[in-house]
Automatic annotation (TrEMBL):
Pfam families the UniProt entry points to: Ribonuc_L-PSP
Identification of the protein by name: RidA family protein
EC numbers: 3.5.-.-
Species for this entry: Pseudodonghicola flavimaris
InterPro entries for the chain: RutC-like_sf (IPR035959), YjgF/YER057c/UK114 (IPR006175)
GO molecular-function term, one example from the UniProt record: hydrolase activity
PANTHER family: 2-IMINOBUTANOATE/2-IMINOPROPANOATE DEAMINASE RIDA, 2-IMINOBUTANOATE_2-IMINOPROPANOATE DEAMINASE
Keywords: Hydrolase
Length: 115
């Protein structure tokens, strides 16, 4: 199964800022499976790949917006999320909400500094 083409851009540049669309924890087969920690790691790995294609890495992320489907996943999500960032940590907003794919437990979008 491949990830479907959707009607939005994966990235957009504005001045010294790069905006990334929300990323789900798709595996290599285009499926979203597993617990919140595995989905978080996959989503952040995909974000890191997108940033790398732009000549950036996760240290350039200044802001994250994270969507969880279950408040009970918050601690497990934080444990996986913290593996990817170091000081200075990006600012973050975490929202508990439904997602477009019923099997998705997390979606993450970031803003990165291009300077």
């Amino acid at each position: 199964m491949s990830i479907p083409a959707l009607p939005f851009s994966k990235t957009r540049r504005l001045g010294d800022t790069l905006y990334l669309s929300g990323e789900l924890g798709f595996d290599a087969d285009g499926r979203v499976t597993g617990d919140v920690q595995s989905q978080t790691r996959l989503a952040l790995s995909r974000i890191a790949e997108t940033l790398k294609a732009q000549g950036l890495d996760l240290s350039k992320v200044i802001s994250c917006t994270c969507y969880l489907t279950d408040a009970a996943d918050f601690a497990a999500f934080n444990a996986a999320y913290s593996e990817f960032f170091s000081d200075p940590l990006p600012v973050r907003t975490t929202v508990i909400s439904g997602l477009a794919l019923p099997e998705a437990r997390v979606e993450i979008t970031v803003i990165a500094d291009l300077s």
